[in-house]
Amino acid sequence: MKKRRIGLVISALLILALVTWFKFLWTPLITDEHGYEYTIPQGTSIKTVIADLYYKNIIKNRLMFNILVELHRGGHDIKAGEYLFAKGTTPSKLLHQIMTGSGLVYHQFTIIPGWNMRQLRAALEKESHFNHTVRSLSDTALMNQLGHPELKPEGQFYPDTYFFAGGTSDLALLKRAFQDMQHKLTKAWQGREPGLPFKNMNEVLIVASMIEKETEYDVERPVIAGVIINRLNKNMMLQIDPTVIYGLGTRFNGTIYKRDLLAYTPYNTYVIQGLPPTPIAMPGLESIMAVVHPQHHNYLYFVAKHGKDGPHQFSPTLSAHYAAVAVAKRLHAEFFNYTLTRYYLLKLFTDEVMRFPLIHDE
Asked: Which residues lie below 8 Å from residue 341, measured CB to CB, with a gap of 6+?
C-alpha cells in the first residue's frame, strides 16, 4: 500500500513536471504587438543573455530555460546581433533564433556612384550600427586587410545598397563591396570588345571613374568613353576637369581656375599624359560597361550645353568645339540658372560676390 502510494506520488510529480515543462515550452514570452528588440553584443555568453532577459522579465523561468539550452546540441553557441523577437515567440523559438541568427534586424548602407574614398570613409563613420574598425586603418593597411596591397582603395568599392546586421564591422561591408567591384570588373573585362587601348582592368576602372564624374546621363557614357579612347589613341591630353578637381583635394572651393589647369598634380590630365594613377571615384556599372563597349565616332571634345550641368555637345574638331563652348556660354546666360540668379541677387543686395563653379581667369 505504501509502495503504491509512493508510486502514485512519483507519477503525479512526473505528470506535474511534464505539464509545467510543456506549459513553459508553449507559453509565449513576447506578447507585445510590435515584438521585442534585443541586442546581443559580440562575445556574449548564453548564460549572460538568459540572466539579462530574466532581469528584463522576458524569460519567466530561468531554470527551465537553462535546461532547454542543455537539451539543445550547440545551445551555448549563439550569434551576436540585433534581434526582433516577434509577438508569440516561445522559449524554443527564441533559443533557435539566437543560435541560428534568424530574425536579425538588418540596416542598410548605400555607396553612392561618384563618391571618392574620403566621402566613403566619412559616410561609414556616421553609420552608428557598424563596429568601426576602418577609422584606425590607413589606405595601405585597408588594402592589406582586403588581400590586395598592390591596389589603392580609390574606386575599388562597388556602389550599391548593402544590408548588414548591427555590430557588423565596416571592414566586412567594404570587403563585400570590393568583391562586388572585382566581380563586375572581371566580367566586363572578359566581355570587352577587341582593340581597346587598356592594359588591364584597373585602367578600365580609372576611365570609368572619370566618366562617372563627367555625366549623370547613361546615354552619354559610351560617347564620352569614345572621346577618351580617341584622345588616347592620338596621344592627346585627356583634359578631364574632374581629374583636376580630384588632384586639388580639399583645396577645391567649387571653382576651377586657369592656374589649377596649369598646376601639376599626378591627376591633372591637362598636364600629365595618359591616365591618372588611380580612379578618382567609385564608378557604377553603366560607366564600366561604357568603357568596354564605347560608342565609335570621331569626337575629340565635349562641353556641357548649359554651363556646369546638363547634357554635352560633342565635337570632332577644335574649331567646332570652340563654337560649341560659345553657344554653351550664351545658353548658360540666357536660361534661368540658380547659381547665376543667386550671384546677381547677392551682387544687387550685398557686397558679397559668390564664386559660382565655372572656370575663372585668375
From this structure: none
Q: Please give the single-letter amino acid code of residue 36.
A: Y
Phi/psi for 243 (5° steps) reads: -70, -35
Task: Write down all domains in the chain, each with its CATH number in brackets.
Answer: 26-100 (3.30.1490.480), 113-186 (no CATH), 196-360 (no CATH)
pLDDT above 90: residue 335: no
Whether 300 shows a pLDDT value over 70: the answer reads yes
Q: Which residues contact 30 (CB under 8 A, 6 or more apart)?
A: 36, 58, 85, 86, 87, 88, 89
Q: Are 53 and 47 in contact (CB under 8 A)?
A: no
pLDDT tens digits for range 124-178: 999 999 999 999 999 999 999 999 999 999 999 999 999 998 888 999 999 999 9
CB 29 within 8 A of CB 90: yes
Between helices 62-71 and 91-100, what is the axis angle to 10°?
50
- Cell, residue 208: 570609368
Place of cell 555637345: 313
Q: Are 212 and 113 in contact (CB under 8 A)?
A: yes
Q: List the grid coordinates of 263.
A: 598646376
* Rounded CA separation 251/113 (Å): 22
- The C-alpha atoms of residue 296 and residue 315 are separated, in whole angstroms, by 13
Q: Which three cell numbers stand for residue 195?
A: 582593340
85 φψ region: left (φ > 0), alpha (ψ -120 to 50), beta (else): beta
pTM score, two decimals?
A: 0.79
Q: Which pLDDT value is given to residue 191?
A: 97
pLDDT bracket for residue 307 (50, 70, 90)? low
Sorted by sequence, the CB contacts under 8 Å of residue 285 that are 6+ apart come out as 184
Q: Of 321 and 351, which is predicted with more confidence?
A: 321
Q: Which three cell numbers stand for residue 322?
A: 570652340
340 vs 333: CA distance, rounded Å:
8
At 33, give phi and psi (nearest 5°): -60, -35
